[in-house]
Write a structure and sequence with these properties.
CATH architecture of the largest domain: 2-Layer Sandwich
CATH topology of the largest domain: Nucleotidyltransferase, domain 5
Shape: globular
Radius of gyration: 24 Å
Number of strands: 7
Number of helices: 18
Strand content: 5-15%
Structural class: alpha/beta
Strand order of the largest sheet: 1-4-3-2-5-6-7
Length: about 375
């Protein structure tokens, strides 16, 4: 409104926006800045706090700014992400757990995030983990002398700790626990597809009645920074194909197979937020048009919500574990490790775990008369 009467130049914009942000009157704040790019930047800078960081990041996206122009917000968002992944490191819920190696991989290339993680590990008393982090990323000169002294005091056998860590598989799956779901696949039924030979083997999927689809990419420490999907898992009740999207980019035989699977009306597709995954793949792989159509699919989140309206489950692993417990009450976890020694260690636990999406949901949904109305999706 102020801009209509030309009053912006006479107002103390910082004072006004500070009051609006403090009062959580964000709609009024956005109206005040809507015609002035400098005021938009000022509004975002005033929102660089834990309370408003995510909303500030969304404004950056809405206004087509670069998040790198707001270094304080970058650090704030990184700290929030670090604390989330640190929580996953210490979590006792199998579906949310992350190994130390996975957490350390996430901060590769982010020096400020490495320092933040090291300080948080020290604060939480995880001194062995802090030692491994500081050694891997050579942070000893960047931490304070007091912090380094504390690590050395709490981990006197630091050489043995480092040696043990480097000798172990950093993406270790962990032991098989009683009550774990047993994978239906033999090792020879897990196909790693990165070339034409692998694509030929993956054609077994065309024989399926139901397939489960899931994609994986490296999590980001930056809100709204899109990362290129790296692999896509497609599983039936007899075979699991893990497609290397980066190596298969622009491969016409891969596009042909995906089109046959995704556009088939006789194959039911199951996934979690499948439309969002396909949109991202379409955007990041513009020369692979095979992901623009998905016929006859069910979003497991919608199915779960319909069957269990009073339960809240956000992740695919949590939903699948809940369904497993219905299929067989004696089972409580999808943390099966029958393939751990023979699969690519860099693949990570969740890649194999999520392949159970098909078997669990197939058995729960079968016969087809129990299935909700399926959907079709047309992307661009």
């Amino acid at each position: 409104m102020a801009s209509i009467f030309g009053l912006h130049s006479k107002l103390d914009a910082k004072l006004i926006l500070t009051k609006l942000v403090t009062a959580d009157a964000m709609q009024h704040a956005k109206k005040f800045v809507e015609t002035n790019p400098d005021y938009k930047r000022l509004l975002i800078s005033l929102m660089c706090s834990n309370k408003y960081a995510k909303r500030a990041a969304k404004l950056i996206k809405d206004y087509n700014f670069s998040i790198l122009d707001f270094p304080h917000l970058v650090i704030r968002l990184q700290k929030k992400a670090i604390r989330y992944y640190l929580k996953c490191l210490t979590c006792h819920q199998p579906a949310e757990q992350m190994s130390l190696g996975q957490v350390l991989d996430l901060v590769e290339g982010y020096k400020s995030a490495q320092l933040c993680l090291a300080q948080d590990l020290i604060y939480k008393g995880l001194f062995s983990e802090a030692l491994i982090l500081t050694t891997r990323y050579e942070l000893s000169t960047q931490l304070t002398p007091e912090e380094m002294k504390l690590i050395k005091e709490k981990v006197p056998n630091h050489e043995a700790v480092i040696k043990k860590y480097t000798e172990e598989n950093i993406d270790a799956f962990g032991p098989v626990t009683p009550g774990s779901f047993t994978m239906p696949f033999k090792y020879e039924d897990v196909i790693f597809v990165s070339n034409d030979e692998g694509l030929e083997k993956a054609k077994k999927l065309l024989e399926a009645k139901v397939i489960g689809i899931d994609s994986e990419w490296r999590p980001t420490l930056m809100t709204f920074v899109e990362v290129k999907p790296a692999i896509m898992q497609v599983a039936s009740d007899k075979v699991l194909a893990i497609f290397d999207l980066i190596k298969l980019d622009e491969n016409p035989k891969f596009c042909e197979l995906i089109k046959s699977l995704f556009m088939s009306m006789s194959i039911l597709k199951l996934g979690l937020a499948l439309k969002e995954d396909m949109r991202l793949i379409c955007k990041m792989y513009p020369k692979m048009p095979c992901f623009t159509h998905v016929f006859n699919y069910i979003d497991i989140a919608d199915f779960f919500k319909d069957k269990f309206p009073h339960e809240k489950q956000s992740s695919l692993a949590a939903i699948t574990e809940r369904i497993i417990s219905i299929i067989d009450p004696s089972l409580h976890s999808i943390r099966d490790r029958t393939l751990q020694e023979k699969t690519d260690v860099k693949l990570g636990a969740k890649t194999i775990d999520k392949s159970t999406i098909t078997l669990c949901n197939f058995r729960f949904l079968h016969p087809p008369s129990n299935i909700q109305q399926s959907q079709h999706w047309h992307g661009t």
